[in-house]
Amino acid sequence: MEPFGARLASAMANRGPLCVGIDPHPALLASWGLPDSPVGLQQFVDITVAALGEQVAIFKPQSAFFERFGSAGIAVLERLLVQVRETGALVLMDAKRGDIGSTMGAYAQAYLSDGSPLASDAVTISPYLGFGSLQPALDMAAQTGRGVFVLALTSNPEGPQLQHAVQADGRMVAQAIADAAGAANAGASPMGSVGLVIGATVGVTGVDVSGVNGPLLAPGLGAQGATAEDLRTVFGSALANVVPTTSREVLSAGPSAAGLQDAAARMLEQIRQVLG
Q1: Which residues act catalytically here (predicted)?
Q2: In 3D, which of 130, 149, 121 has the Cα closest to residue 219?
Q3: Cα distance from N-terminal residue to C-terminal residue, the chain
Q4: Which residues of the chain are modeled with pLDDT < 50?
């Protein structure tokens, strides 16, 4: 399979860079008039994918909202992967997995290996057991043409305590993660398959991501307070690789298909005015 970085670049060029999160939390299900159950979950997925599947480049289902229903919820998540694949959009599984050794290898097999029912185009992973602990996922992604998005600068208020900490070599932890991602992506064209997650609300951080040469997922647009213009502040010269993501700003317009499509189109237009 063509490397994820190349496939994502093509999808962004053809459909625009917007990523829509699929976050069926109880309040959102209720606002759509759906039950907080696996049945409601499936209806939510059906409506969202049918409305937006041919419009957006990539979806980001939040695994936790499916896991909370146990095997029935995971079954909906597995069907979601099939449904999205049929539309030509990509799927980034937001699972934020991170561990060491054989356990990290098992996570890699679950989300990145051929034939797994949860295999996605990419998965979010956490480097805070050390970037080297991610190697099983990096290896599996490279082998199967999939990608990973590594948490670097998150928008939660607790994040800076760890992410802004300074290492013995004088670099912030987040900078070291960005540098490691850049090393993994060296020589890739049009961009590598090791991305970073950097919140659109983090402002000026002093972390240089110009050398990452991979996709930069930017959650936080809309309901979380960030605007498309904030992307300039956070990403600077790396704007071309930014993948802005939103969920509530688009999903709150459902369950009307037209409402979802209009909301996604408006958000995409705002993003294009900034990213070009």
Answers
A1: 96
A2: 149
A3: 29
A4: none
Per-residue pLDDT tens over the stretch 136-149? 999 999 999 999 99
pTM of the shown model: 0.97
4-270 homologous superfamily? Aldolase class I (3.20.20.70)
117: nearest Cα among 189, 168, 41, 66: 66
Element (H, E) at 30: helix 26-31
Give per-residue burial for 80-100: e unless 16+ CB within 10 Å, then b: bbebbeeeebbbbbbbbbbbe
Question: Of 184, 209, 204, whose CA–CA distance to 194 is shortest?
Answer: 184
Q: Catalytic pick from 96, 164, 171, 248?
A: 96
Task: Count Cβ atoms within 10 A of the Cβ of residue 4 and give its class: 0-12 exposed, 13-18 middle, 19 or more buried.
Answer: buried
* Closest by Cα among 266, 248, 223, 261 to 32: 248
User: Within 37-127, where are the H helices?
Assistant: 38-52, 64-67, 71-87, 101-112
Question: HEC states along 108-120?
Answer: HHHHHCCCCCCCC
Give catalytic status of residue 96 as yes or no. yes
